[in-house]
Amino acid sequence: MAVRIELKALDPLPELRLLAIQVAVSMNHPRVIPILEQASKDLSPLVALEALKKLKQFISESRFVSFLTRNINSPSEELRGYALNEIAKITQKRYISNYRLLPLNIKKLAGSAILKLDSTFVDHLIEELKSLDPDSRLRAALIMENLKFGTQAQDALLMGMKDPSSKVRAAIVKTLGVLGNKALFKHLIGFFNDPDERVRANTIEAIKHLGHEQAVQVLSPFLKDPNNRVRANAALAVWQLGKVKILPIIHSMLSMNHLMRASALWVLGVINSETNIPIILRYFKDKDDTVRLNAIKAISKIHLETLRTLIPALRKDPNPEIRRLVEEISYKLI
User: Fold this and answer.
1) Cα angle 51-94-158, degrees, rounded to a multiple of 5
2) With bands split at pLDDT 50, 70 and 90, how would you rate the model's confidence at 318?
3) 133 vs 128, 140, 163, 166, 207, CA distance in Å?
4) Of 132-136, 200-204, 274-278, which gets the smallest average pLDDT?
5) What is the C-alpha separation between 232 and 246, in angstroms, rounded?
6) Is the separation of the CB atoms in 297 and 269 below 8 Å?
């Protein structure tokens, strides 16, 4: 019986070849994989398509992709369409599962490429925003930050701001800011009432991205916010948008608790002005690890050479993360 099935798979009549591969699969033929692999190259699009569909369940995903790629330029519209659709699905799945490990530029490029392959990718992410699993909702919001999409997805994100997870809301509001749609300004202002500091801090970043003419006026009250992230984001935003003088605010933060000091040093690093180097250097001996770490990071952004003579002392820092950073910097100074 098994031999006859293999012979029928080579029959001149495509109808019999099609029947042969269907029987081979149903009876779990010992040579079902070679039969299907051969049939996937069949001159009959009907036979080749059926073989490809069946082959998917018997071989690894990477091997299956190699068979699909042979058909992306097929003269058969059905074969070509199936191959492209399956490749898009596999690419989406890999992109989603590996998203957090990808460099930022790859996230954007790969996201755009997937959208070109399959315009329903955004629809899939919109559904993910409604998932019962908070990690899936968070991942969808993070991925959408690097995609271009229409009003349907934008509306879904706005609805997502009712999510019970503060992490999801924080990711969504950041994505809304990246869209650059000034019509979202009034929506974003409403998110300042969120109980979570991260959401409020990301709302400030989002408003900064919009570049709305009223942004500085709206953000100025947050220069006195009790939360370090909110205050630091507000200071950086009004400086970038309106060149507001924020050094008095930064000096005030540097005289406060360790969280405020760390955030102030982060802002100075982003501002990237050499005139601030003497201020930053004072915090290389701060009692708090994060403050020292942010001070070193700030100087490395502003003027790396300043650290050359300080490397030997910094290598003795009690914090392992700081020592690792100093080691990386030392290689750059060679």
Assistant:
1) 120
2) very high
3) 9, 11, 11, 14, 28
4) 132-136
5) 10
6) yes
Tokens of 168: 């999801």
Cα separations (Å) of 229 from 112, 232, 300?
A: 31, 5, 21
Structure tokens at 298: 């700030």
DSSP 240-286: HHH----HHHHHHHHTS-HHHHHHHHHHHHHHT-GGGHHHHHGGGG-
**Phi first, then psi: what are they for 315, rounded to 5°?**
-65, -20
> What is the C-alpha end-to-end distance of the chain, expressed in Å?
72
Q: Give 89's pLDDT tier (boundaries 50, 70, 90).
A: confident
Q: What are phi and psi of 139, to 5 degrees?
A: -60, -40
Please write the tens of the pLDDT for every residue from 232-283: 999 999 999 988 899 999 999 999 999 999 999 999 999 999 999 999 999 9
The counts of H helices and E strands in the chain are: 21, 0
As a whole number of angstroms, the distance between CA 92 and CA 95 comes to 5
Sign (positive or negative) of CA dihedral 169, 172, 174, 176: negative
Q: Which domains does the chain have, with CATH numbers?
A: 246-334 (1.25.10.10)
Do residues 203 and 192 touch, judged by C-beta distance below 8 A?
yes
Report the 10 Å Cβ neighbour count for 236: 22
Highest mean pLDDT among 23-27, 54-58, 65-69, 320-324: 320-324
| Closest of 40, 62, 64 to residue 50, by C-alpha | 40
**Could you give the CA distance from residue 295 to residue 66 in angstroms, rounded to a whole number?**
50
| CA–CA distance, 267 with 290 (Å, rounded to integer) | 14
Orientation of helix 121-128 relative to helix 77-98, angle to 10° = 40
pTM, full prediction: 0.74
In the numeric block, the tokens 């330029």 are attached to: 73
